[in-house]
Each structure stands twice: as C-alpha cells, then as structure tokens.
Amino acid sequence: MIDQLLRFTPILKQKIWGGKKLNQLLHKDATGDNIGESWEISDVDGDESIISNGSLKGKTLREVLKEYKHNLVGSYVYKTFRDEFPLLIKFIDAKEVLSIQVHPDDDLAEIQDSFGKTEMWYVVQADKDANIIIGFKNDATKQEYLHHLENKTLLDILNVDQVAKGDVYFVPPGRVHAIGAGLLIAEIQQTSDITYRIYDWDRKDIDGNYRELHTEKALKTIDFTAKENYKTSYLKESNTSNKVVSCPYFTTNILPVKGEITVDLSSKDSFVIYMCVEGEVIFNYKNQQEVIKMGETILIPACIDTVTISSKEQSKLLETYIQ
Predict the structure, then answer these.
(1) How many angstroms separate the CA atoms of 72 and 69, rounded?
(2) What does the note accompanying the cofactor annotation read (predicted)?
(3) Given this chain, do its domains 8-230 and 242-321 carry the same CATH topology?
(4) Which helix or strand (DSSP H or E) is residue 151 part of?
(5) Are 302 and 74 a contacting pair, CB within 8 Å?
(6) For the chain, which has fewer Cβ within 10 Å, the N-terminal or C-terminal residue?
C-alpha cells in the first residue's frame, strides 16, 4: 500500500509564446522571460515527474507506478494502461497567442507510438479582452479550409470566444484551437505530446527559423463541423464536487472549498488529482498535512479512501480522476 499524499517538482518549459505569470502569479521557480508551461504531473518519456515529499521523495512517478501498480492508480486504470500514467497535468502561461493547432485521436496517434490527445482548459486568470480560438463558426469543407489556410485568413472561418476567469473548454481530438494571448490556463490531458501545428502567425524562433507546420497530418484529423457553443457550463455549489467534464479519458469536477470537508474517495477505482486554481487549501491524511496554494497540485493514490480538506477563505480545486 502507498500510504501518503504525493507532491511533485514542476517541470518548467520554455516556449516561444511564454511569459512570466508562472513565476509572478503561481510562484513557480521559473527564470527567464518565456516560461510557457509547468508540467505538474507527467509520465512523458524524458519528462517523468519526481516526487518532492515524504518517504518516496526523489523517486519518479514511473518508478512508483511500477512498484505500487493498482494501489497508486486503481485496478481499472492499471489494467488499461499498465505501467504508463494516463494523464498529463499542466499550467500554461500564454503571453502571446499559441499556434492554431489540432490533436489526433488514439488511432491516428498510435502510428507515432503515442496516445491521442483529448484535453480540457480551466481559465485561472485572463487579461482584459483575452480570447480563445476554438472550432469553426459554421460547418466548413476541406476545400474552404485549405483556401483560407493558403491565404492566411483562417480567422474568417474559425470561432473566437472572449474568455474570463473560471471559463472551461473541452477540446476533443479534431477540434481546431489556439489559446490566446494573456491567458493563464490549467490543462488536463491524455499523456501525449503530439500537436499538429496548422498556422503559427509567421513568427520565427530564437534562431530565426519558422516552426514546422503539419498540414497533411492535420487534415486527417480535423472535424469541420461547427458547434452551437464551445464553452462548458457547470454548477459552483460550495463544498461539493460539481461535474465539469466527463469523457472516457478523465472526469474533472470543480470543488469550491470554504471551511472543512471530508472527502470520501472509496467509490473511485482511480487516483485523484487536485489542482488548486484559487486560494489555499490544507489536505490532511492520518499524520500528513499538505498546504496546497493556487498553482500547486497533489495526487491522492487510489488506495486512500478518505481525505480532509479545509480552507479559511473561499478556494477552488479542480478534481480529476478516471471512471
């Protein structure tokens, strides 16, 4: 049995579009002007998270998973994914707009020996007039799309939403998207680092080169149908797990906390991850106490049935597991 709550050392990623909010707002140990991502929990090859607390401190997530198996992730999850942790948990700081891109599903990604990439975003902070590019305004054809891609007028046919703190977007494979400038995002996704870049605003990297585009690969996965509304609505009842997203790859709830609550996890055959997106909360389990501030993340192993969570002021957690 793995008898402790797990914290990890963030893995910081420099990006051409990154900024300083991960340091300034989330107090990450980030130096430099272009830190775009903090990988909170990762099992991506070459970027395995390292435990930062307790008796397992210094071990990687992969090592602990191989040792504790279903006790860490749950019987169903271990049977399905074996020694691969199925989720990648991030905070993203977009000082500039990201490339317009799309992700493949499991079948297409398997060609590249990877999982597909289904993801969701929670807006932690948004500058004035910040927006997200998500999906098409109206149903489009491949020919129409290629015409606008060639003429650099994709925004004429893509949907753009102005966004605010607390907004949620679900991004399945095939949905064209781009996180806009001025957004600080919590992202939950399948363990995959595959992105098909469609258009990158003609910008160059620090060496003066254009980044690679993946026009043909993107064409194989794009869903050209439009949706009435791309934003996800959800309830915000205090001290209750309010369901936000539920898909085969993960379930995410929003848990506003004020005062003290005891959370019964015994019915979940899964690990549970909590990301603090507002305020500060205290997790208590047996003799262990962990203070989790905005921008920090904790993993509850599947074999732990109950934790106590408390907060003096109104705080918010994203609660994620696999059903």
Answers:
(1) 6
(2) Binds 1 zinc ion per subunit.
(3) yes
(4) none
(5) yes
(6) N
Higher confidence at residue 32 or residue 307?
A: 307
197 is catalytic: yes
Class of domain 8-230: mainly beta
Tokens standing for 305?
């049935």
**Residue 148 annotated as lining a ligand binding site:** no
Q: What is the DSSP string of 232-276?
A: EP----TTS-EEEEE-SS-EEEEEEEEEEEEEE-TT-SS-EEEEE
Q: Looking at domain 242-321, which of 3.10.290.10, 1.10.443.10, 2.60.120.10, 1.10.630.10 is its CATH number? A: 2.60.120.10
Task: Tell me which of 7, 175, 197, 211 is the catalytic residue.
Answer: 197
* Residue whose tokens read 């098909």: 196
Pairing of strands 280-285, 196-199: unpaired
Q: How many helices (H) and strands (E) does the chain have?
A: 7, 23
Task: Report whether pLDDT(237) > 60.
Answer: yes
Residue 103 assigned to a binding site: yes
Residue 192 confidence (pLDDT) = 86
CB atoms within 10 A of CB 60: 16
pLDDT in tens, 125-155: 999 999 999 999 999 999 999 999 999 999 9
Sketch the domain layout of the chain as residue ranges. 8-230, 242-321
- Classify residue 15 as exposed, middle or buried by CB count within 10 Å of its CB (0-12, 13-18, 19+): middle
